[in-house]
Amino acid sequence: MPARLSVNLNAIAMLRNRRNLPWPSVVGLGRIALAAGAHGLTVHPRPDQRHIRFSDLPEIRALIDDEFPRAEFNIEGFPTEEFLELVERNEPNQVTLVPDDPAQSTSDHGWDLAGQGEFLKPVVKRLKRRGLRVSLFVDPEPAGLEKARELGADRIELYTGPYGSCHSNPQGAIRELERLGRTADAATAAGLAVNAGHDLTVANLPALAEQIPQLAEVSIGHALTADALEFGMPETVRRFLAACGW
Ligand SMILES: CC(=O)[C@@H](O)[C@H](O)COP(=O)(O)O
Ligand SMILES: NCC(=O)COP(=O)(O)O
């Protein structure tokens, strides 16, 4: 089955936050994306709430529950106590744990699974006890992924930033794709399902989907929001779904 598309609403929230006004509406554009066929919505709340605000989460949860009960809600972020309580209050289908520092402008690396395993283990256990699917954001590096399974994770999310940055470097893109493919295969061998995200575009998705046939989900925000400004959200979602192979 082609990878499912989860639309990341952070970039829309960032645009909204330029003013103390309720537009563009994060929930409204989430609704349009799901109505156009997207399979889920992703948010990545950060402690300073510079994109998604904590108050957006119950509204997104209600949108899915009331209007799109088959859609998935994915919450991404660094597992502080504040983040974990936010997750527990809003009951997503999936939690993607990301090792980003509050000062980072965006996510730019995956977990050091060996070095940070002791920190992650109780966090994964706590989320699993709540019945949530847990995914760990990882670099495209095949070695050591069994550790993610040992920690209790269900999935990994491949950090595709280095692949995305090869948009005008075809040889580099081929090298990154091979690295992503080997990492995905190592994850599958370890019993983990595979998600991917960061700087994915309509242009670079088809090759990724071909390289990783087992890809379960892609979460996409920045390029999808840029395209939505040009083509409108419904047409953009259809273009991204087609790029995934739907
Ligand atoms: C983990 C990841 O790659 C995304 O969550 C990314 O951080 C999107 O969030 P921003 O667009 O707010 O950086
Ligand atoms: N997990 C990655 C994500 O949600 C979106 O990243 P981007 O498309 O905004 O780079």
Secondary structure elements and their pairing?
Elements: E1 4-8, H1 10-16, H2 26-35, E2 40-43, H3 56-67, E3 72-77, H4 81-90, E4 94-97, H5 117-129, E5 133-138, H6 146-150, E6 155-159, H7 161-164, H8 170-189, E7 193-197, H9 205-211, E8 215-220, H10 222-231, H11 233-244
Parallel strand pairs: 1-2, 1-8, 2-3, 3-4, 4-5, 5-6, 6-7, 7-8
Helix pairs in contact: 2-3, 10-11
The structure holds 1-deoxy-D-xylulose-5-phosphate and the ligand NCC(=O)COP(=O)(O)O.
Which descriptors would you attach to this protein?
246 residues; alpha/beta; TIM Barrel; eight-stranded parallel barrel; 8 strands; binds 1-deoxy-D-xylulose-5-phosphate; binds ligand LD2JLWAY
Rounded radius of gyration (Å)? 17 Å
In DSSP terms (H or I, runs of 4 or more residues), the helix count works out at 11
Q: How would you classify the helix and strand content by structural class?
A: alpha/beta
Give the N-to-C terminal Cα separation: 9 Å
